[in-house]
Amino acid sequence: MALGTKRSASLFAANAEKRDALGFHDSPELDVVPVVVDDTPQRTLNTDIATLGRAHNLFFTPETEGKDFSSVLQEVQEYISGAYSSLISQGGEDAKEQLQRYITKYLQDQHIAVAGMTQTELADAIYSEMAEYGFLTSYIYGDGIEEININSWRDIEVQYSDGRSEKLTEHFDSPEHALAVIRRMVKDLNVDTTIIGCPIIREADGLAKSSRNTYLSEKERQAALVLNHSLKAGKALVDAGETRASVIKSAITAEIEKEPLAKIDYVDVVDFDTITPVEKLEGSILVAIAVYIGKTRLIDNFIVEK
Q1: pTM of the prediction?
Q2: Is the pLDDT of residue 18 over 50?
């Protein structure tokens, strides 16, 4: 998929001054995502972001430098979606500034750090994932960018106006992550395009088709069926009227843990558009899992419309 045209006529160029999968994967594994709406009155934090950064440098001592960015991002997303979900849904510059402040303050209050990143860099990266376009943001608004080609969720190539081509080492976390970011980008930049996620194609026994299935031994191939079985358990609860995300996650987790060869990477119930964790199923929801069977990481999901 190619995003953008030559810089002089680019959609991104026209919007540059304003700022500063699931069809995107290399196998037929598809993804979806859910959303939370919070009626809690919006609170105002009258603290300048730069001031918070300076205070951090002087007084902040992280409890651990060992956390990885993905786990920190998920933790902050869960906090923000639970306490300030209206900031995510309402949009606008004021809401974005508020969101940045709350992210920064949460990192300070919880003494959270990621190795190799300053507190300001960490806050900016989390904000970009939640309100912008993650690692793509700098390329979308960068100078001399002619095209951004998203070949799959882990294969992105940038074409420069001087003829250079660069394969990015950065990539999306999953097909559903790619789909959510691209949909947000198309909406924000007023691109007259509809993004359609394709249905998952399955083997006769229910396993989602993937090139990674070829890495499974015969015993692992049988064990891999636990992904589909666990999602069916979660879907049965949804069909029966269950709307609590925690209950659905627990049922899926319990089913996966019955398989000795399975190791859970994640079980998530998130808003389809923002990939933000939810507590209750409302609107478009993605129930997604990633599980290691032996050394092979497999993913699967289903979508809920409430």
Answers
A1: 0.52
A2: no
Condensed to tens digits (0 to 9), the pLDDT of residues 121-136 reads 888 888 887 777 778 8
Which string of DSSP letters, residue by residue, matches the chain? -EE---GGG-HHHHHGGG------SSSS------B----SPPP-----HHHHHHHHHHH---SEEEE-HHHHHHHHHHHHHHH-HHHHHH-SHHHHHHHHHHHHHHHHHTTEEETT--HHHHHHHHHHHHHS-GGGHHHHTSTTEEEEEEEETTEEEEEETTS-EEE-S---SSHHHHHHHHHHHHHHTT------PPPPPB-TTSPBP-GGGGG--HHHHHHTTHHHHHHHHHHHHHHTT--BHHHHHHHHHHHHTT-TTEEEEEEEEEETTT--B-SB-BSEEEEEEEEEETTEEEEEEEEEE-
Mean pLDDT of the chain: 77
